[in-house]
Amino acid sequence: MEPEDFVEPEIAVTAAVVAALFSPRARKLIRQGLVYGTAGVLMAGDAINSFARNVGRGFAQTGQEAGTRPATAAKGSGG
Predict the structure, then answer these.
(1) pTM
(2) Other CB atoms within 10 Å distance of the CB of residue 26
(3) What local confidence, expressed as pLDDT, does residue 72 receive?
(4) Which terminus of the chain is more exposed, N or C, with fewer CB under 10 A?
(5) What is the dihedral angle through the alpha carbons of 69, 73, 75, 79, rounded to the nearest 10 degrees?
(6) Model confidence pLDDT, tens digit, residues 17-28
(7) Cα–Cα distances in Å, from 69 out to 16, 61, 79?
């Protein structure tokens, strides 16, 4: 392979990927990135799930309060 061949994008990208795969330092960084990325996705999922659950509880409480308010409001408006 001649040095001019590395100017072509396909060959340059392939060479960079192969160098990264065989480099222990690069493999360590890739693994850490995957671990932190996965942890971030799991944390975001938990936060979204918790938010949705709290919104659902809020709607449920509002619905229960709305069911009892007309009787209270009617009783209070008669005076």
Answers:
(1) 0.53
(2) 14
(3) 52
(4) C
(5) 160
(6) 888 888 899 889
(7) 68, 12, 16
DSSP 19-75: HHHH-HHHHHHHHHHHHHHHHHHHHHHHHHHHHHHHHHHHHHHHHHHHHHHHHHHHH
For 53-77, write each residue's pLDDT tens digit: 999 998 888 877 777 765 555 555 5
* Three-class secondary structure of residue 78 per DSSP: coil
79 token code pair: 């005076």
Cα torsion at 64, 70, 75, 79 (round to 10°)?
130
* Spatial CA neighbour of 58 closest among 69, 70, 50: 50
SS3 call for 18: helix
1: closest CA among 13, 15, 18, 19? 15
